[in-house]
Amino acid sequence: MKLHFYKYQGTGNDFILLDNRKKELQLNSRQIAMLCDRHRGIGADGLMLLEDKKGYDFHMVYYNADGNESSMCGNGGRCITAFAQRLGIISTHASFTAIDGVHKASINDNDTITLHMSDVNGIDTYTDYCLLNTGSPHYVKWVADVQNAAVVAEGRAIRHRHDFEPNGINVNFVQRDGDNLIVRTYERGVEDETLSCGTGVTASAIAASGAETGYFDTRIQTPGGILEVTFMKNGPASAEQVTLRGAAEFVFEGDISIS
Predict the structure, then answer these.
(1) Do both 156 and 238 map to the same domain?
(2) Range list of H helices, the chain
(3) pLDDT band at 111 (very low <50, low <70, confident <90, very high)
């Protein structure tokens, strides 16, 4: 089978994009994992299908690099919005569905994309970490020196902890930098550190607000670049009007044959 694919990246989090509006693609987990393999395939942190959805501009189907369908991906949501513009489906605004519900996105004048994320209901706070779901489940761990954190070893151990079975959890190592944050993330499904995680920085920003309420605008440095998260908190354990803003860039397109 021959596929025409597009490659996008958002702050270093990279994805394979496929146009499946005709519903002709039926990929299995082995094929998806092969396409995402950086040595034997195209190479990516994940793969997305853009499909038709009645009443919306499109539907986003997201797969992790291991080939399994996954929960929401924030960087992926921005990249698929840019992809939809490239296909002529949208101009500068999108309304689409994903596994966690409806999302809206807008393409800004500086070529960044603002993605409206899901509301957060429930933040579990412990001494040195928080648990919350921003479309994907996240463990936010506070560290003093994120550059020297054992992201892969410790992240993998936390991801596979018995209390997070059977699906595991994404793990963010977060250092406060004044009003800003520095974040590194171990992602389940990729089973490694990625250069950036959109739902992860969103979780980190919300967790960093603690018990405070009001409007928040947080700048986050990741290994792949800068992201900005805004949200409103009316109570200590919830957040609404959540947005994630950052770049989403076309890398290249091509054809590949898979068995």
Answers:
(1) yes
(2) 29-36, 74-86, 151-159, 198-208
(3) confident
